[in-house]
Design brief:
By secondary structure, the chain is of the alpha/beta class. The chain is built from 11 helices and 12 strands. A 10-stranded mixed beta sheet has the order 2-1-3-12-11-4-5-10-8-9, with helices on both faces. The chain is globular. The chain starts with a strand and ends with a helix. Bound molecules: adenosine-5'-triphosphate (ATP) and magnesium ion. GO terms for molecular function: magnesium ion binding; NAD binding; oxidoreductase activity, acting on the CH-OH group of donors, NAD or NADP as acceptor.
Length: 354
């Protein structure tokens, strides 16, 4: 077991350079408290990389990322890049290039923050490589096209293999949580694609007799998440449905600014908050770093599950505990109605973990 964790750090655009360093600092202190050191390597990404290297995800960044299994990645704001060149979204490039097929998005209310659903505690396990999301599509490249100027088409892809691996991810997560998986689809209308997804998830369920499984249509799921949020534990679904349901769950738990996430393959994981670059507040030092800090904790927990290093999971627990403690004390950034700056909030959390 190594005493040094190597992190690739890609700050990204907008509020990225404000929240990413806070998350890295908090993680570094939490790990130091467990006797571990962190070695960070900053890599060009986003608008700064367009300036320095002529592309938002330079080849040198992709090459370097190969050597890291843990990445902390900020948001990107493709709209801010020079209009004359069209780039695919940088986050999608990373997910596709490295096969980060699982997007894990937990949503849980914390005390100190007003939540629409104070009893929500769910994990949305979102298939990250298929479905209707053309730019994420690993199987057929671009999934959208216009056969005539007046008709636009999108092709959705669902494969048995990708459905199986995301289902395994969900059932494994359920074993670590409250032992309940809800498979979300729309198989009454999208019979072949989301039907295949559902069938494969239910086939995987047979390998997990200790986990309770049920299923919902995505529209009913949206309503039930508002009406009876406490009834749900792990929600596994395809790409587009997962994107929408995870924003809904995040808002029900308090705010998008709190929502952490990781994107993972079997061998590497990238911490990246659910929120975007927030250009409307960038550069003012008021962004909420909670989502990015929490994404860092998820990254450490992912690493601990594979390495078996309990010091790393202890650091992750310390981070989540510190954030809850600081929010519980009424310290918060402007999005939650507080008066703390990004760095003040970060310093309060850092003081708790280290
Ligand atoms: P993307 O397309 O990249 O997902 P988006 O259009 O969904 O971006 P965000 O960048 O997530 O938008 O911002 C949505 C709103 O939430 C904005 O008003 C933004 O200021 C706010 N917001 C997002 N993240 C944060 C944060 N960490 N702290 C405070 N406010 C935030
Ligand atoms: Mg968004």
């Amino acid at each position: 077991m190594t005493d040094t964790l190597r992190l690739a750090v890609l700050e990204g655009d907008g509020i990225g350079p404000e929240v990413v360093p806070v998350a890295v600092d908090v993680a570094t202190r939490a790990l130091a408290a467990q006797g571990l050191t962190v070695e960070t390597t900053a890599l060009p990404f986003g608008a700064a990389a367009v300036e320095s290297d002529g592309a938002p995800v330079p080849a040198s960044t992709l090459d370097a990322l190969e050597k890291f299994d843990l990445w902390v990645v900020g948001p990107h704001d493709s709209a801010s890049y020079p209009a004359e060149v069209r780039y695919p979204p940088p986050g999608a490039v990373l997910r596709k290039q490295f096969g980060l097929y699982a997007n894990l998005r937990p949503a849980r209310a914390v005390s100190g923050v007003t939540a629409t659903a104070p009893d929500i505690d769910v994990l949305v396990v979102r298939e990250n490589s298929e479905g209707l999301y053309a730019d994420r599509n690993m199987t057929i490249g671009s999934g959208e096209f216009m056969p005539t100027p007046d008709v636009a088409l999108a092709v959705g892809v669902v494969t048995r293999a990708a459905s199986e691996r995301i289902a395994v991810e969900a059932f494994e997560a359920a074993r670590r949580r409250r032992g309940h998986v809800t498979v979300v689809h729309k198989a009454n209308v999208l019979r072949l694609t989301t039907g295949l997804f559902r069938d494969e998830c239910l086939a995987v369920a047979e390998r997990y007799p200790d986990v309770r499984v049920d299923e919902q249509h995505v529209d009913a799921m949206a309503a039930l998440l508002v009406r009876r949020p406490a009834d749900f534990d792990v929600i596994v679904t395809e790409n587009l449905f997962g994107d929408i349901l995870s924003d809904l769950a995040a808002e029900l738990s308090g705010s998008l600014g709190l929502a952490p996430s990781i994107n993972a393959s079997d061998t590497r994981a990238m911490a990246q908050a659910v929120h975007g670059a927030a250009p409307d507040i960038a550069g003012r030092g008021i962004a909420d770093p909670v989502a990015m800090i929490g994404s860092g904790a998820m990254l450490l927990r992912w690493h601990a599950a594979r390495s078996g290093d309990s010091r790393v999971s202890a650091a992750a627990d310390a981070i989540d505990g510190a954030v809850a403690h600081v929010l519980g004390e009424g310290i918060a950034t402007a999005d939650l109605g507080g008066g703390a700056s990004t760095s003040e909030f970060g310093a309060a959390v850092a003081a708790q973990v280290g």
